[in-house]
Amino acid sequence: MSGPLLELEDVVVRHGAVTAVDGLSLQVDRGEIVGLIGPNGAGKSTTLHAVMGLLRPSSGHIRLQSRSIAGRRPEDIARRGVALVPEGRRIYAELTVDENLRLGLAGRRARGDVAGDLRRLYDLFPVVEEARRRPAGGLSGGQQQQLAIARALIANPDVLLLDEPSLGLAPQMVDAVFETLTAIRDRGIAVLLVEQRAQRTVALANRSHVLSNGRLRLTLEPKDADDTQTMVAAYFA
Amino acid sequence: MIAILNINWQTLADAVGLGSIYALMAVGIGLVFGVLRLVNFAYGQLIMAGAFALALASQWGWPLWAGVLLCFAVVVVLSALMEVIVFRPLRGHSPAVMLVATFAVAFLLESIALIWFGSLGKIAASLAYLQRPVTISGVDVRKIAIVATVVAVLCLVALVALLSRTSVGLQMRAAAIDFRTARLLGVRANRVIGAAVLISGVLAAAVSVLLTVQSPLVTPDFALRDTILVLAGVVLGGMYRLGSATLGGFVIGFASGLLGGALPTAQSQYLPSFLFAAVILVLLIRPQGLFTRSQQQAVERV
Fold this sequence. Notes:
The complex is a heterodimer of chains A (about 240) and B (about 300). With about 240 residues, chain A is α/β, with parallel strands linked by helices. Chain A has helices spanning about 45-50, 75-80, 95-105, 115-125, 125-130, 140-155, 170-185, 200-205, 230-235, and strands at about 5-15, 20-30, 35, 60-65, 65-70, 80-85, 160-165, 190-195, 205-210, 215-220.
């Protein structure tokens, strides 16, 4: 199969009169992490929402394995192998940890070896196994984030979208989340990561696109991470 | 108190029976509200349609089981049509638009019944023998009170099992809490809403059967008053949780049965006024509903 796993081409998304994403093109391939950084309102989350089908792009193409997915329903896109870890985690606080995880099965294309996949997830996130029968609302923020990522991964996605997974977490948990992302990439999943922590994202991702006002301003590579001058210039370009 | 109101065991059993029927209606309304945030005002007309099916079957001399089967078929098919023709195209519109649409459906169905069957109505008498009492340790209890209670308990147990044990049940619970996130996880909106509407239809059909025993004369406004009372009960209990909505339905049915049995006949026409006055009073004190734990949760879901 040719072409990247996930491809955005000249995507424009409008919120009423405001153009939130303005002609964005990017690609994410298997085993890659691509970062999206930039100030608030730059269009990062909007981009993820457009990929996921929550917003319909007014023009441009979004392709998954060369097939167009723009304008499809979120549940259909999920069932084609795209999973989103939404901003604010969106854990079902009153359902148990296990029930939250099982909801992720809805996006799975083939039943396959659910038990084996669960085992691997429990290895990655021990707390998800330990707290299985407890209400998910009782978990700490970091644990909820782990659960949200586990819930996305149980669907066996080809593409994982993450919307600010480190938001509101203690520094130690931030480390844990970023380590997890490396493990996910190494499984051959394409990761598109929206983050506020620009420096860490640039260091982790294969490449990071800097957005502002819905436009791609600059693309940074891991070697640029320590070069704060470049970063600052990018932000205030 | 009990002596003053002239309540005996028989009245109490009837009240429990009516409370059970109303609880079933409350679950039916609450299930659909959970996934669609839609108060289906036409729920009573579904029950009315089922009751007419029973009446017709009885008029045609069909055996009881065939009549009940027809009733379930009519109500479930009507529910499915309502979902596909009305709810689905309007999904995502404001709750006010959806509510008004269900009013329209309610009046449409009532008018159709009026045209087809006339205002005098028909008799559904095949289950009339359930009106007769059995004597349990010296107390006469109408069989329908027992049957209604047993049917309601069985339906509720089955529903709880479905919601807690099956994947579609889990998806319905999740969708009732946060539909958008559920869809992001791959939960199909049509499947979850379809399941809720169908279950709600099955419950409506069960209520049709039980209510025709209570009042065998089926008119186009059959179950209308009951629906309004149940809606008040659902709000009273707390809309945003199925359990509290169900309890609210039971309470309003129980209170209605109790007062209906206790009040002198001349006063019983004021019964709904008393009930609604009580509902208003409760809501002034606890706007989030009688059986919801915190106000925050009720607001959060709006």
